[in-house]
Design goal:
about 170 residues, mainly alpha, 6 helices, about 60% helix, extended
C-alpha cells in the first residue's frame, strides 16, 4: 500500500475520509539512486530493440489468440509503406534538402516511440501518429509502381484489343 499525502489530500467529502495511516506515520518519497552513466548505457543498449519493435511490431510469429490476427492486414500495408519510404529516401538522396525535415521527423517520432513505449498494443496505436508521414514519404515510389503497372496493363494484347473495341 502506497500512501501519498494525508487525509486532507483526498478528493472525497470530509465526512467520508478515512485515515488509514497512524498519526505518527511520516510519508516520504525517495528516488532510487542510479548512476546517470548506467541509465544512459541501458537506454542506448535498448535503442536497437526498441526501434525494431517500433518499426515492425506486432510480429506475425507472436500470434497467440484469434484477435491477434486483426492487425495483420494493416501491418502488411505498413511494411510496404516502410519499404517504399526507404526506397524514396535512397532514390532521391540527391534532393536530400526536400526530404530532410519529413524524414527526420518520421524517424524521430519512431525513435521516441521506441524509447518510451513499453507495451506492443500501445506502441501499435501510437505508431499511428507517424503513419501519415511515412505514407507521404512512400508516395513517390508507390505512385511509380502504380503508373508502371497501369502502363504494362495497357500494353497487354487482350487489354489493348478491348480498349480499341470500346473506342470504335
Amino acid at each position: 500500500l502506497v500512501i501519498v499525502g494525508g487525509v486532507d489530500t483526498t478528493p472525497a467529502p470530509p465526512a467520508e475520509r478515512i485515515n488509514i495511516a497512524p498519526e505518527s506515520a511520516v510519508v516520504q518519497l525517495k528516488s532510487a539512486e542510479v548512476p546517470t552513466e548506467l541509465v544512459l548505457a541501458r537506454t542506448l543498449e535498448y535503442i536497437p530493440r526498441g526501434l525494431s519493435h517500433s518499426l515492425f511490431a506486432p510480429f506475425p510469429w507472436q500470434i497467440r489468440r484469434p484477435v491477434d490476427v486483426l492487425p495483420l492486414p494493416e501491418m502488411v500495408v505498413w511494411y510496404v509503406c516502410l519499404a517504399a519510404a526507404t526506397a524514396t529516401l535512397l532514390r532521391r538522396w540527391r534532393s536530400w534538402r526536400e526530404l530532410l525535415l519529413l524524414g527526420a521527423f518520421s524517424f524521430g517520432m519512431l525513435l521516441l516511440l521506441a524509447l518510451v513505449e513499453g507495451n506492443v498494443g500501445t506502441l501499435y496505436r501510437h505508431r499511428g501518429m507517424a503513419t501519415p508521414w511515412i505514407l507521404v514519404l512512400s508516395t513517390p515510389v508507390l505512385s511509380d509502381v502504380v503508373i508502371r503497372s497501369a502502363a504494362s496493363l495497357r500494353s497487354r494484347p487482350v487489354f489493348a484489343a478491348a480498349t480499341a473495341t470500346d473506342a470504335g
